[in-house]
Amino acid sequence: xxxxxxxxxxxxxxxxxxxxxxxxxxxxxxxxxxxxxxxxxxxxxxxxxxxxxxxxxxxxxxxxxxxxxxxxxxxxxxxxxxxxxxxxxxxxxxxxxxxxxxxxxxxxxxxxxxxxxxxxxxxxxxxxxxxxxxxxxxxxxxxxxxxxxxxxxxxxxxxxxxxxxxxxxxxxxxxxxxxxxxxxxxxxxxxxxxxxxxxxxxxxxxxxxxxxxxxxxxxxxxxxxxxxxxxxxxxxxxxxxxxxxxxxxxxxxxxxxxxxxxxxxxxxxxxxxxxxxxxxxxxxxxxxxxxxxxxxxxxxxxxxxxxxxxxxxxxxxxxxxxxxxxxxxxxxxxxxxxxxxxxxxxxxxxxxxxxxxxxxxxxxxxxxxxxxxxxxxxxxxxxxxxxxxxxxxxxxxxxxxxxxxxxxxxxxxxxxxxxxxxxxxxxxxxxxxxxxxxxxxxxxxxxxxxxxxxxxxxxxxxxxxxxxxxxxxxxxxxxxxxxxxxxxxxxxxxxxxxxxxxxxxxxxxx
Length: 510
Ligand code: GLC
Ligand code: CA
Fold this sequence. Notes:
By secondary structure, this protein is α/β, with parallel strands linked by helices. The chain contains 14 helices and 18 strands. Strands 9-8-7-3-2-1-11-10 form an eight-stranded parallel beta sheet. Strand 7 (about 200), helix 7 (about 235-245) and strand 8 (about 255-260) form a beta-alpha-beta unit. Helix 6 (about 180-195) runs parallel beside helix 7 (about 235-245) and helix 11 (about 335-345) runs parallel beside helix 13 (about 420-430). The longest helix has 17 residues, at about 295-310. The chain binds alpha-D-glucopyranose and calcium ion. Alpha-D-glucopyranose (GLC) binds near residues 203 and 260.
């Protein structure tokens, strides 16, 4: 079997830059702070970093409202700082992906200022402008995200039309049916590809193709954000042209799209015939599998069957900057440890959200400290680096600490070989050393116990992985040497046939 590309074998680490590390002591994470912590990323053993947006932005949606695509916001540093981060990562064999936000810009982006300036602006058709419906009011019944049922349209009195915004009014949607928009966006990506960026995570990629008729959403979806159901075929030619442009660059650049659809949908359609996205998230499905062996087995089998049918490779995600951390959702560190065997042991490219390797829970946010319009502050709490009162940050950070920062911080857990951090590191190392784990085939194993067990294999390399979802010890008739276990016990020894409550294990058959 030929070795697949890096984005298929490797593990991606998501950094939310405001919350990772602060280099200049203003309480907001930045690129110099990140640069100082590259050594940690190399020690941990990840293959790529995906950096959430660092572009100039009024920060209405903390950077997902971009006012300039080819620069760095002074809050985070400079282009030179970003180059330094890229070089430091590349020196250690780590790739760098940026977050590209093509569905909408900030309302302060010069493109939108121009578009809004008059009906005859040459950029009027770069955004979605429509007349009020006859008798007045928004052109259709679409509702925006984060809005409790408020319209996805805002009236612009000077020009007498509404503009569409799938998210906040400060995030007007671009009109991707206008060729100049696509050209301008290709130029943005070329700017970064020429600068040695290894690829992009694409924000709400399913939003780019819109039904040109902009029909009303059906009554049963009243009050639900339109964007969560926007799955129109016109997205596919856009993705094919994008893929062709990116693939023309040397060095295996990658496009990972965020597909966040709540209705019936087929995420593999976004891979095309191997000529659209390289990888796609299928977030609502992936994030909310019940904590139970049968659910995970069925979910995995269904995902793999769908992806294999079109030679696509899945993604694996437990946490990100938009959703409560899985340590909080699952309710215990034991479960978070067991979940790490799913993330790093099932087939698919794992995306690890900074801090999950520390077993971080969401911060409790008092109402007066809440800042996000979407209520997502808890999972964006700053990463504690050490046990000092400021936890490696120089000022009081922009959000409260997650629970137990004096114990649950990088320095303490790094010094403790029994910590969840060391478990992640051992799992990452096992993956890197095993073609079976990194990209091998998958086969569920029958067991008498209520555990989820599977076999991976590639090039004569084999591993068995088992996860016990129950709170009881389970007997397991699998054989092999323990390569990694939840608490480190028995590693290097023949498997004793018992899986601890809520634990995972990787076995290497002799
Ligand atoms: C994506 C991002 C989210 C952002 C939204 C609008 O879902 O992950 O953080 O608010 O898009 O850009
Ligand atoms: Ca800072």
